[in-house]
Predict the structure.
Amino acid sequence: MKLYLRGHDYKYAAEQIMLTLFPGERPTYPEEPPQAGELAAVVSIFRGKVWATGKTVLHHPGGVFSGACRVRIDAAVGQVELDRALQKALKLSFYRAATAALGKEPPWGALTGVRPVKIPTRALLRGESPARAEAALRETYHVTPTRAALAMDCARASLAARAGLRADEISLYVGVPFCPTRCAYCSFVSADVGKSLKLVEPYLEALFREIEAAGALLARERLFVRTVYIGGGTPTTLSAQQLSALMGRIRALIDLSRCTEYTVEAGRPDTITAGKLAAIRENGADRVSVNPQSMEDEVLAAMGRAHTAADILRAYELVRESGIPAVNMDLIAGLPKDTPKGFRYTLDTVLALDPANITVHTLALKKGSRLMSEGGCLPSGGDVADMLDYAWQRLRAAGYLPYYLYRQKYMSGSFENVGWCRPGFENLYNICMMEELHTVLALGGGGVTKLVDSEKGRIERITDPKYPYEYIGGIEKIIADKEKLAEFYAAMEKR
């Protein structure tokens, strides 16, 4: 789609709303004016002292359509608040023009961001009633009633988590970027351990050094770890001895006296053994994942998994026998060769196991994934909607509650990923990460540290190299970069 920006430079905001309404398009910025019959949008902002107006003129094969939105800007405090108001006008004007042309609205309406729950959360923190906050989602942003209710449930969970956090607490993420094989939908930089076995031990040695430095940094800054999450990749690609060594270093070098939640993402059932689960349990973790994604062998094969549904059941039984109290299971709606009937079978099978947490993802076609480059036999958006509708109905009926959600680009049907749990089994790390409630210190290859000043709404990021060999070679600089945490908290204390 050709985009023409007038009176502003909010390029990213324009592209976000364009991708929401026209997911198959890619933006271009030509100099020549739009031609009759081609897809193009002129997106303008007109600013006065009190009001600003966004206006979009959409050139579509079905005709020319216009949309406008006026917002008040005289009370905006600071550039961030002003930018937010102007981008709201831009997006809603585009949305109104595009939905008039298309004759339909997406489930999340005009919301484009990864974290839609932040909107009702901010409203509740301002003292607005839940009814008013939910109505704003539906009336201002055109979110469907079902999705608005979902966002409100997750906003309540976010506020409950926020109330239990202390200013001197952070979360700790430790990354293990190795997997037994690469799934067709995956774009994460994770090394196939069969091809990269020689990197595992050097990687762990570098990671041990970063753990030691992080422990000293946190002690010096008087910060305490509230949650630990070992993710990947697939951490259980490591041997039982390697897992024990990694978790032992964390326990020995970082103060976990305030840690109330410790998760290890076991994930792939073909990596789960009784010995690894014993190492995880003995080193203090109380949560693991067993992520089937599907319980159909044909779908598992199509997505590149080297295990069967029977292997998933065996792995789940091993976790139960290990005594680890909480288990999460991930499912994906929209996988190649899946159908609404097949997805219903998957969900019903998983529900019969009664895990503490079930996360229902919507397939996202990610750049760098095999599915993006090669394509596949994917369900339609309507079929994915049927899958999610069934999941919501069955999960609520079974007593599960939604507690966090997020969205991604290029998601089938423009839907969402939702974490569901038994009451009392919310994963605090997931809420803190997705809602950016406090700092998350990330160690290991591909880790992204988020330094969060929740009072000011300021966030800074520190990104570690993605590839294991780059991480190993750059460990000195990686450790030095983490000193930015001390500078960030010193600036907070000076306020």
About this structure: Residues 120 and 126 are 10 Å apart (CA to CA). DSSP finds 17 helices and 17 strands in the chain. The mean pLDDT is 92.
